[in-house]
Design a protein that fits this description.
The chain is an alpha/beta fold and 374 residues long. The chain contains 14 helices and 13 strands. The strands form three sheets. Strands 4-5-6-7-8-9-10-13 form an eight-stranded parallel beta barrel, surrounded by eight helices. The chain has a two-stranded antiparallel ribbon with strand order 1-2. The chain has a two-stranded antiparallel sheet with strand order 11-12. The longest helix has 20 residues, at 153-172.
């Protein structure tokens, strides 16, 4: 399907001979008057709430205090909070796998073997290492570089023990602890609209814990990766708690023939979507507004990023905002003009240059969005 191009895309200069693209970011004003500063207006522009998923700062030191500082530095006043920082702050037991990898010296990747892509944001509990697979993100697996990581029986036992300890910790933690953390964000003028616990494979008691904790943090729902089992598992809990189960897509619209949101909508009115416009466009080439217009009343939030499309070389590749092909302006203006209460969250996934960092890049993305909406 032909991609609809925005008539108001921010200008870019292209040198066709060398194929060098100068980003539209170069024209974004870097200084605003005090009257229109991010500090005074927050990060709501033209009625559209620009926020960020805290996964965007995965390359930075973690922790609740750091996240608060990053929000202040970028001017962001609403976030999708990754649960790992939250639970670690409250004293969750440490995953022994992470400790094992941390003790090993880093090794160089095997020659001509590209590194695997970073895993999508997920649950803080790496119960997620049930069998052979990759080690935690950002660490070098044991053994020669390039060799597939295999779980040993000893590792499995450690993970099983850890999962039980983590469950016991969660179920013993008073909700007042989450309320104390919420106050820290409230005092800083930062709201948390959803918490990414990804709890679909947890026990019933832990799923209750996830929704109770998210509610105590002031959130309206809990995020999980989309899938039939996950939707059916979490929807009753969302209804029970008077909240939303919010599901995030990757490339299902391209990879799974006939994939549609429609069957999930029938499960429960508590099912909502965290529509990743970047993954959608990068894998299908279809204008994201086709999905947003159709499901706007069931889209809780949109992940905003820039990418190349599926017909470009390299295809479906993250880009600095303004250097890719995602119609960012179309998306934001559609939500603004219709006054839909959809959170628009920056998900920073493009490589950060050595002279910058993720906080500076998120701040630039906020200003880019502001330029479109104001």
């Amino acid at each position: 399907m032909e991609n609809k191009k925005s008539k108001r895309r921010l200008p870019v200069a292209k040198f066709m001979g060398s194929k060098i693209i100068i980003a539209a970011l170069l024209i974004v004003p870097m200084v605003y008057s005090c009257k229109n500063s991010l500090k005074e207006s927050g990060s709501t522009f033209g009625g559209v709430q620009i926020g960020v998923i805290t996964y965007s700062w995965r390359s930075m030191p973690g922790g609740i205090e750091n996240i608060l500082n990053y929000c202040k530095e970028t001017g962001v006043t609403s976030i999708e909070l990754m649960s790992n920082d939250l639970e670690e702050y409250l004293g969750a037991p440490e995953n022994p796998m992470m400790n094992m990898f941390r003790q090993r010296p880093p090794a160089q990747p095997a020659a001509k073997t590209p590194p695997p892509p970073p895993p999508p944001p997920g649950a803080s509990a790496p119960a997620a290492v049930p069998g052979p697979g990759a080690p935690p993100a950002g660490v070098q697996p044991p053994g020669p570089p390039g060799r597939r990581f295999e779980m040993t029986e000893e590792m499995r036992a450690e993970i099983e023990k850890y999962n039980q300890e983590l469950k016991e910790w969660r179920l013993s933690l008073p909700m007042s602890k989450f309320e104390e953390v919420r106050k820290m964000f409230d005092d800083a003028g930062i709201s948390i609209h959803i918490v990414k616990f990804s709890p679909a494979r947890w026990s019933d008691e832990e799923i209750d814990y996830a929704f109770n904790a998210a509610k105590a943090m002031g959130a309206k729902g809990v995020t999980e990766e989309i899938g039939e089992e996950a939707v059916k598992r979490l929807a009753p809990f969302a209804e029970k708690h008077g909240m939303y189960a919010v599901f995030h897509n990757h490339m299902q619209f391209a990879d799974e023939p006939g994939f549609s949101y429609d069957p999930f909508l029938e499960v429960s009115p508590a099912v909502m979507f965290n529509f990743d416009a970047g993954h959608f466009f990068g894998s299908t080439g279809i204008h994201p507004n086709e999905i947003i217009e159709k499901y706007h009343d069931r889209i809780f939030s949109v992940h905003i990023k820039d990418k190349t499309g599926p017909e470009t070389n390299p295809d479906n590749t993250n880009q600095v905002w303004g250097q890719g092909e995602v119609p960012l302006e179309d998306i934001l203006l559609l939500i603004k003009e219709n006054k839909w209460p959809i959170y628009c969250d920056i998900e920073l996934e493009y490589p950060v240059k050595p002279w910058s960092d993720a906080v500076k890049e998120v701040k630039t993305c906020v200003k880019y969005a502001r330029q479109i909406l104001m």
